[in-house]
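B., you asked whether I could sanity-check this one before it goes into the benchmark set. Here's the sequence:
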Amino acid sequence: MRIKVSAGMAVAALLLAGCSTSNNDLSAAGQSVRFVEEKPASNCQLLGSASGEQSNWLSGQHGEEGGSMRGAANALRNNAAAMGGNVIYGVSSPSQNLLSSFAPTASVMNGQVYKCPN
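And here's what the prediction gave me:
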């Protein structure tokens, strides 16, 4: 009996730890990365693609006023900065699917990372 209770408590603790939401805070380097709608000029160097993700497991798909998309955008900007980029172009967010109607899924943003002269 004691083993079953201990095992149950351990599983519950792991589930709660997995459900905790972590906001993707914008790093100092990420603050210098900007989103653009027009393709960067030819003097900008394409570094590759990056993505950012914010878990919605605990808060649900429609968290506090777009907070999950903001978290995904912050993660994308942080990842672009880590690549040495300062511009993100062609940002997309995969559309919701059937699964997201039943269970909260993560918000994801993708984009092309460029290094442009200041």
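One thing to flag: Strands lie at 34-36, 45-54, 87-92, 107-115. Otherwise nothing jumped out at me.
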